[in-house]
């Protein structure tokens, strides 16, 4: 086996995945727009520059695919990469997708289907990231500055999952491309959790009072835009909170346990690991 290309290799999941793979003795090529000069296995990769696809895939037999972020229609960029990956002889391709399909994202289902049609193609549909409660995410910044969570999701629950568990699940599939696997896994934490419940857990573990301010979907979209998100993506992300409020996004699964042999981390454990984030 040659090695694993990790797109988004400096992000929440990718960075941890690279560490897990390298600890297991597997070459992990870190693909990002700004590769670290100190890492000999780091390479420039830009979804908007197809000339970077070939060098990134050279000598690679496995790929962790993180589609372009903050885009409601990433398929036009991902499709040419998938063609090159197949020509390069990639045996296992694991895409990090989302359990939540953004409104007005017509290509999300088609992109998953095209990944699954690849040799060894697997889609991990991850629920909300617990890491959103850490800086520099706008949610975390507001908790830190104001002790407040603003949400349009009401008491609706989401199957929040730790990015470390997503990385471990991806690693289980990438370490041995011969392992039998389904083409689709829903990746969640052990239980559903609402924003008010998250605020209670942070308050209990840090001693710092965190309150919840209930706002409208339009107010949330405006806040996302103000944080720098593209307008279309900000509006779609705010609309997701309507689905959470209506109870459509609270599903949980046992996929992390199936893939890694251990249960996913609960939010209380995540908070315990990062108490300094809200108390400094």
TrEMBL record:
Protein name, UniProt field: NAD(P)H-binding protein
